[in-house]
Amino acid sequence: MINSGDTAWVLASAALVLFMTPGLAIFYGGMVRAKSALNMMMMSFAAIGVTTIIWVLYGYSLTFGTSQGGLIGDFSHLGLSGTLDQVVGAEGHQIPTVAFAMFQLTFAIITVALLSGTIADRAKYGSWVLFVAVWVTLVYIPIAHWAFASQGGNGGWIIDKLGALDFAGGTVVEINSGAAALALALVLGKRDGFRRDPMRPHNMPLVLLGAGMLWFGWFGFNAGSALSAGSLAATAMINTQIASAAASMSWILFEKYRDGKATTLGVASGAIAGAVVITPACGYINPLGALLLGLIAGVAACYAVSRKYKFGYDDSLDVVGVHGIGGVIGMLGIGLLATQTVNDTGQEGLFINGSFELLTHQVIAIVAVAAFSFTATWLIATAISRTIGFRVLRDDELTGLDTTYHAESAYDITGNSNRY
Amino acid sequence: MKLITAIVKPSKVDDIKRALQADGVHGMTVSETRGFGRQKGHTEIYRGAEYTVDFIPKVRIEVLADDADCDHIVDLIVATANSGSIGDGKLWVTPVETVVRIRTGERGSDAL
To answer: Coil, strand, or helix at residue B76?
Structure first.
């Protein structure tokens, strides 16, 4: 028996989460220089197209098909076969399997789209499109199976065997993208002029608009992960709001103290860092816990993004610092603050029941996902680099990728350019 | 005739325009430009990374004047553009061979 309220919320959430990827395109597009702004946005749109095709053909099946030893699904739902008349969820809260498949598809899309930020302004477009297909298949799908495919104790190993808690994708989306981004940045190398030339964001209002779209869509991401329209979804939603707001303020407070000014890029980045940290935790901790995690995430991510200059890797738009670090803090936060008063299907953290058990499980999940994601991504990116090449020619990089790859320019700001 | 060219702070352009209009100057041309002098650039901060922007926005003002009016106009622009702080800009005067009003073909002072 399909629950129409739950189904309506999951359908709406799927649309909200899909909206995040164009939002990410705007957020990232504003942050790069004008000469490659369209290319940056096109990377996100390729993620939407390619991932959707893969998801329908075999992605959903390999992620949510019958688990093979907790590591991967099977081929029982190729082409979404055997899903159209099926339902998922507990009795009384059942939704159509296709609604669940659509909702989960939008997670796969945004995760791979996030990676585009680390290699801004210097990736061959065709190589990126190929990378999206291979990465979703070999990295995203296995990890999503581990942490999301609950099958009554016999599903993915993180959710069903280890018992680590990850409400909306702290491992699958955030730590995964952070670790993969580091590997990509190392394989592709630094932008020409990194640390020498000013690489200012070319359009800060776009960055703020994109951050707003992400913040808005994140309610579907987190509250939708309840897969029901009830108090758990409501808690996840208000926790998302609290953490995003708190982190936006703690980021600019830290900035004001360290650099002397509170910046718009800081407030936007802080909001994202807050949404990231609460992603795994939003359905397991109480609102004051969300406030605490948000405040910590804003400061920690603000500090983390400046470390790339010290270590010398060009994670151009700070996927590692914002998503990787934020995801780790959120996963650890569950191990400390999780309480069954919020979610009786969850567990309790160290500060609630004094046991290290959950925290230990969280650490294992973090390390396993980060190690697998980094290694597999490094191998995939290196293989592409050595065969068809991943990095653009220096000349094209200096000219900008918009005209090189797309035969377009983002702006015509002269006003007279078609008269002479 | 002279061509007076001034590079000034963008924030001073309106004051200069009003001062010149009040003084009965016939016309002026402005264009947005960038450069550096002793002021050098300025610093911007993005996610904690400081960037020095070497070329900073200025406005270039050009005024054509009769030899007799030139010193007075120069003094007026300098007085208006001066804020006393570094980065107020520069002004120079160059001789002009002739001026032509395109509509009528008038030449020299008549074209001003």
So the answer is: helix
Structural domains in chain B, CATH included, are 2-111 (3.30.70.120)
User: Which stretch of DSSP H or E encloses residue A144?
Assistant: helix A141-148
CA–CA separation, B22 and A131 (whole Å): 65
Q: Would you say domain A4-189+200-406 falls under CATH 1.10.3430.10?
A: yes
- Contact list, B52 vs chain A (CB under 8 Å): 198
Complex ipTM value? 0.70
In this structure, the dihedral spanned by the alpha carbons of residues A184, A190, A194 and A195, taken in order and rounded to 10 degrees, is 80
Q: What is the pTM of this model?
A: 0.89
**pLDDT tens column, A265-311:** 999 999 999 999 999 999 999 999 999 999 999 999 999 998 988 89
Residue A388 CB partners (closer than 8 Å, separation 6+):
A124, A126, A127, A130
Q: Position A210: which residue type?
A: G
Output Rg (C-alpha) for chain A, integer angstroms. Answer: 21
Contacts of B47 in chain A (CB under 8 A): 263, 265-266, 269, 302, 305-306, 318
What's the alpha-carbon Rg for chain B, to the nearest Å? Answer: 17
